[in-house]
Amino acid sequence: MEARDKQVLRSLRLELGAEVLVEGLVLQYLYQEGVLTESHVQEIKAQATGLRKTMLLLDILPTRGPKAFDAFLDSLQEFPWVREKLEKAREEAMVELPAAKLINSDTKWNK
């Protein structure tokens, strides 16, 4: 998963925990797409609360490869407002990250 996408998940972590119920379509879709293993699904389902399930999923997602973020977006069919928030945050991060890289590279040249 790209650093930008990891940052988006981190920055919206509490909102995602409050708004997304992962047990239904989200988990099954991510399993179907190969983002989660059967072991991941069982571990997530074993959590006591919906919040803990979502937090565990958010811990696992960044480790599951370059397609994990897009698959997560696709899994949010039941939560279109959450998907929109994530997409907006991702677009904003795309604008901010290149600017930060330019500043850092410019700083290196000035030394």
UniProtKB/TrEMBL annotation:
Q: Cross-referenced PROSITE patterns, in alphabetical order?
A: CARD
User: Record's Pfam families?
Assistant: CARD
Biological process, per Gene Ontology:
cellular response to mechanical stimulus; positive regulation of apoptotic signaling pathway
Originating organism = Neophocaena asiaeorientalis asiaeorientalis (Yangtze finless porpoise)
Task: Report a single Gene Ontology molecular function.
Answer: protease binding
Q: Where is each CARD domain found? A: 1-78
GO-annotated cellular components: cytoplasm
The molecule here is called Death domain-containing protein CRADD isoform X3
